[in-house]
Design brief:
cell membrane; transmembrane; 17 helices; Xylose transport system permease protein XylH; mainly alpha; transmembrane helix; transport; single chain
Length: about 450
């Protein structure tokens, strides 16, 4: 899960031999010219030694990718697992996989905004507002639950679009727009809830079922893992074939197989742990499906590349003919949509919408999840998987400290320290890349 910045790979010989010009034109070099050779082809020709050398080069130049957060998860699990065996039990890990979904959904929207180098301070209030809209429409007014759900999610998209308009068209800084939105949407939520203040959501409601439904059959978890691995392998092979046809560097089959084996090991290990308790939670399945779809949008579509372009160099994006206002408005609309979906899952978790929905430390947690997961605060670098990794780190810290009986005050301090460490790593990484001429 590397941080793809949307840049096109330099072309090279499709056969991976280093012959020809390597410029992707198929033309022979001029007499006396030195053929261009893509360094990645040399790495692959050297085998394990080449990959180790490339890994060391990336570490020295600050291209850390997801390594820091993966190491953080390993350390956190090792520490809490050694202090209390309950932490690594199948039940706790299964509960953790459900608990991170609401926060993770909202963090995905934050990732999109951070890729532009901006921030959205309103997602907490938007999530609470949309949960309140569903509860009032469905529970208090008897509207069809599916229609109420669609209206609530559409409400999040509209809210994001409004904020994006003021930012992209009017020119108000995103920080100010979303800070004002944080207050305004919270006020609107209180108005929607009315004098009752709290609307309880029945356990048989679609919102409650989205969170509480668990597929107990072992085939569900293992089948999902198998489908995921198969899709990853097929996508990797198709991408290699497409790159080869376009005469640009592509991953050899051996490397694709190795990556697939690693993914398969993680996927089936997760399925095994889930099956040791109750099975596959529907909430986790929906979260993973959304991550795959949005990852495809970011890394495999023209729109996704435009987001990276605007976040990496806004003036360059304008000169390339990209509609910067459209990209900005659409990204904030996506953030509002994901905030609505996340708010729905959080409401399903506690089976209510109240005046405290979307409040507390939710905003800080979702921003921290995106940043800790590896999305740069400076824009242009990150993936939607950052939300999953970051939410897993924060959720693991909170789960472990709850098991240990640590107070909320200490939990806040530790989470804040982890967030600061993530930003420091990001800043040092950018400095190293600039020094190496790669940023």
């Amino acid at each position: 899960m590397s941080h793809d910045r949307g840049r096109a790979d330099p072309p090279a010989d499709p056969a991976g031999t280093g012959g020809g010009t390597g410029d992707g034109t198929g033309q022979e070099p001029a007499p006396g010219a030195v053929p261009a050779v893509d360094t990645r082809l040399l790495v692959r020709e050297e085998g394990v030694k080449g990959y180790l050398g490339e890994f060391r080069r990336k570490m020295r130049s600050g291209e850390l990718g997801s390594l820091p957060v993966v190491l953080a998860v390993i350390i956190i699990w090792t520490v809490f697992g050694s202090l209390n065996s309950t932490f690594l039990s199948a039940q706790n890990l299964s509960d953790l996989s459900q608990q991170i979904v609401g926060t993770g959904m909202i963090a995905v929207g934050i990732v999109f905004v951070l890729l532009l180098g901006e921030i959205d301070l309103s997602v907490g209030s938007v999530s609470g507002l949309c949960a309140a809209i569903f509860a009032v429409l469905n529970v208090l007014n008897g509207m069809n639950e599916w229609l109420a759900l669609l209206i609530a999610i559409a409400g999040g998209a509209v809210v994001g679009l409004i904020q994006g308009f003021f930012f992209a068209k009017v020119g108000v800084p995103a920080f100010v727009v979303t800070l004002a939105g944080n207050l305004a949407w919270n006020g609107l939520m209180l108005q929607v809830l009315g004098t009752s203040g709290t609307v309880n959501i029945p356990s048989e409601s679609i919102v409650s079922r989205l969170y509480t439904t668990i597929y107990h059959s072992p085939a569900a978890a293992y089948g999902t893992a198998a489908v995921g691995v198969a899709l990853f392998l097929a996508a990797s092979l198709l991408d290699a074939r497409r790159r080869r046809a376009a005469r640009v560097p592509f991953r050899p089959v051996a490397e694709i197989v190795l990556r697939t084996v690693v993914i398969a090991a993680l996927a089936f290990a997760t399925a095994y742990i889930l099956n040791q308790y109750q099975g596959l939670p529907l909430a986790l399945l929906i979260f993973l499906i959304l991550l795959v779809l949005l990852d495809f949008v970011l890394r495999r579509t023209t729109y996704g590349r435009r987001i990276f372009a605007v976040g990496g160099n806004i003036e360059g994006a304008r000169r390339a003919g990209i509609s910067v206002p459209f990209v900005r408005m659409s990204v904030f609309s996506i953030a509002g949509t994901m905030a609505a979906i996340g708010g729905i899952f959080l409401a399903g978790q506690i089976q209510s919408a109240s005046q405290t929905s979307g409040g507390g430390n939710l905003l800080m947690n979702v921003i921290a999840a995106a940043v800790i997961g590896g999305t740069s605060l400076f824009g242009g670098r990150g993936t939607v998987w950052s939300a999953l990794l970051g939410a897993l780190v924060i959720g693991s810290i909170q789960s472990g400290m709850n098991i240990m009986g640590v107070s909320n005050a200490v939990q806040f301090m530790i989470t804040g320290s982890v967030l600061l460490a993530a930003v420091v790593v990001d800043s040092l990484s950018r400095r190293s890349q600039k020094a190496a001429g790669r940023a």
